[in-house]
Design a protein that fits this description.
Layout: E1 2-3, H1 18-31, H2 60-70, E2 73-75, H3 78-83, E3 87-90, E4 92-108, E5 113-117, E6 122-127, E7 135-136, E8 141-146, H4 148-168, H5 175-192, H6 197-206, E9 212-216, E10 221-226, E11 233-234, E12 239-244, E13 248-256, E14 268-273, E15 281-293, E16 298-306, E17 317-334, E18 339-340, E19 345-352, E20 355-367, E21 370-375, E22 382-386, H7 388-402, E23 421-422
Antiparallel strand pairs: 1-23, 2-20, 3-22, 4-13, 4-17, 5-12, 6-8, 6-11, 7-10, 8-9, 10-12, 13-16, 14-15, 14-17, 15-16, 17-21, 18-19, 19-20, 20-21
Length: about 450
C-alpha cells in the first residue's frame, strides 16, 4: 500500500498551520509507526521481488527540511506568522514585582487600650460617661465617686498641715522640717491613689474634706466597656471602664507561607474596606506572628493604620495589598513566551527572515505576567511572545517525521478535502505457491 500524491492546480502555501500538524501526527501514529518487530501497525504488504523502493527516497525539498531541523531552526514565512498571530518581544532586565494580597479584620490597637479602675473602694455617685461607645476627650470627667478611705486620707492631710503650722513656730531645732515631711507623706498617700495634685491642693487651700472625687479620662477614646452603674459599690482594683483610642488601629491579615519571605516589618501596605471603595488607607507591617496555621498554611501579619477621621472601625473586613520585589535586575520575558514540556522550559528566539531557534532556558520567579530567565537567554534577544505553541507543534512534528523511516517520502496536500490511496498496484500474497485468486484486497 502506498500513498499517491494529490496534485492541485490552485497555488497554496507549503507551510502547514497547527491543524495540519495535528492531522499529520494522527496519520503518522495510524500508519507509519513501526512496532518492535519491524512491522507497522497495519497488515504488511510485501513488495514484488526486484521492485526498487524509490518511493522511500527523500526528495531534495525534504532533505532541505531535515537539514533545517538538524541545525535547531524552524522556518515559517513572515506572511504565515502574521496570519497566525505571532508576536515578538525583547527580553529585558527589570525588577520583577508582584502584589501580595490578604484579607483580615480591623481590630483595636492593643497598645491604645486602657482600663479605668481605682485603688480604693467606694460607691459610684454619678456617671458622666454613661453608655458604651461614647467618645470621651482626655481630661473629661468619667464618674464621681465617694470613698470612706479617701475621706480618711484627706483628714490625715489636713491634720498634718495643722501640725506643720504649729511646728513651724517651734524653737526646737528641726521641728519645721519634721512638720513638712509629715505633710508630704500625707500628700504622697493620696498620689498613690491617683488623686491629682490639683485635687490635693484644693483640699489644703479650702481646709475641708472633699467627699466626692471626680475621675477624669486618661486620654481621648471610646468607651468600649462599662462595668459600673450609678449607686453601685466597687472594690479596689475593679474595672470600671475600658477605653480605646481609635486614632490608630490594627488589621491582621493572612499571608500564604510561600509569600512570607517577601514580607517584613516596615513593608508598605495599602488597605481598602468595603465601606470606602477606591479610597485605600496607607499603612505598614508592624509585626509578623511567629507561627503558621497548619491547615491553611498561612501566617498572620499585623498592619498598623492611622485613623484620624475614625472611619475605620473594629470589626470591618479589609483587603491589604503590598507591592514587593521578588527579583532584582532580572532578565524577563512574557509568561506566554515560555513553553513547558514537563522536563524543560523553552522559548523560540527569532533570528530574522522567518527563522526561529528552539532554545531551552532555566526559569525562576513569575510575577505580573512576566517570567524570570535564570539562564539560556540574554537581554535584548527577540522571542516569540504569542502563538509560540504553533512553532512548538511544528517542531514536534518534524521530530516525529525525522524518526520514521520512509515517512519523508510521503507528501500530502492537507488543503484538499480528502486523501486518496492507490490500491491498484498491490502485489499478490505468496501462499506457498498457491494462487490466492480472487479480486485484489
Amino acid at each position: 500500500m502506498r500513498y499517491r500524491r494529490i496534485e492541485s492546480n490552485s497555488p497554496r502555501s507549503s507551510t502547514r498551520v497547527a491543524s495540519t500538524a495535528v492531522l499529520l501526527t494522527a496519520l503518522l501514529l495510524g500508519c507509519g509507526v513501526a512496532d518492535d518487530d519491524g512491522h507497522d501497525g497495519h497488515d504488511a504488504v510485501s513488495e514484488p521481488v526486484g521492485q526498487e523502493h524509490t518511493e522511500h527516497a527523500p526528495t531534495d525539498r525534504q532533505e532541505e527540511e531535515a537539514h533545517e531541523h538538524e541545525d535547531g531552526m524552524i522556518r515559517v514565512s513572515d506572511e504565515l506568522a502574521h496570519r497566525l498571530g505571532v508576536t515578538f518581544e525583547e527580553a529585558r532586565t527589570e525588577d520583577l514585582e508582584r502584589t501580595i494580597r490578604g484579607t483580615g479584620e480591623v481590630t483595636w490597637d492593643e497598645t491604645r487600650l486602657s482600663v479605668v479602675s481605682l485603688r480604693f473602694g467606694g460607691w459610684a455617685e454619678r456617671l458622666h460617661a454613661d453608655f458604651t461607645g461614647r467618645l470621651v476627650e482626655a481630661g473629661e470627667p468619667l464618674l464621681e465617686v465617694y470613698s470612706p478611705e479617701l475621706v480618711s486620707a484627706q483628714e490625715d492631710l489636713l491634720a498634718a498641715a495643722r501640725l506643720a503650722g504649729t511646728l513651724a513656730s517651734s524653737r526646737v531645732p528641726g521641728s519645721s522640717d519634721r512638720g513638712r515631711s509629715v505633710v508630704e507623706a500625707a500628700r504622697e498617700r493620696l498620689r498613690y491613689w491617683n488623686v491629682s495634685d490639683d485635687d490635693i491642693r484644693a483640699v489644703e487651700e479650702s481646709g475641708e474634706v472633699q467627699p466626692h472625687l471626680t475621675l477624669p479620662a486618661p486620654f481621648t477614646g471610646y468607651v468600649v466597656e462599662k462595668r459600673i452603674q450609678a449607686g453601685e459599690r466597687f472594690e479596689s482594683g475593679s474595672t470600671l471602664y475600658r477605653l480605646a483610642d481609635l486614632s490608630q488601629v490594627w488589621i491582621d491579615v493572612d499571608v500564604y507561607e510561600r509569600d512570607l519571605r517577601f514580607v517584613h516589618v516596615g513593608t508598605p501596605v495599602e488597605v481598602e474596606v468595603a465601606a470606602y471603595p477606591g479610597e485605600p488607607v496607607q499603612g505598614e507591617v508592624a509585626y509578623v506572628y511567629p507561627e503558621v496555621e497548619r491547615d491553611r498554611r498561612t501566617a498572620r501579619v499585623r498592619i498598623e493604620l492611622l485613623n484620624p477621621a475614625m472611619r475605620l472601625k473594629p470589626g470591618m473586613y479589609g483587603t491589604a495589598r503590598a507591592r514587593v520585589v521578588v527579583a532584582e535586575d532580572a532578565v524577563t520575558v512574557p509568561r506566554d513566551a515560555v513553553m513547558h514540556t514537563g522536563e524543560r522550559s523553552l522559548v523560540f528566539v527569532a533570528h530574522g527572515e522567518g527563522s526561529y531557534e528552539n532554545r531551552t532556558i532555566q526559569i525562576g520567579a513569575e510575577a505580573g505576567g512576566r517570567t524570570q530567565v535564570l539562564s539560556g537567554l540574554e537581554e535584548g534577544e527577540l522571542v516569540v511572545a504569542r502563538a509560540g505553541f504553533i512553532l512548538d507543534a511544528e517542531s514536534r512534528l518534524m521530530d516525529a517525521m525525522m524518526g520514521q523511516p520512509g515517512m519523508p517520502g510521503m507528501e500530502m496536500d492537507m488543503d484538499e478535502p480528502g486523501m486518496e490511496m492507490d490500491m491498484d498496484e498491490q502485489p499478490e500474497h505468496d501462499h506457498g505457491g498457491h494462487d490466492a485468486g480472487g479480486p485484489d484486497a
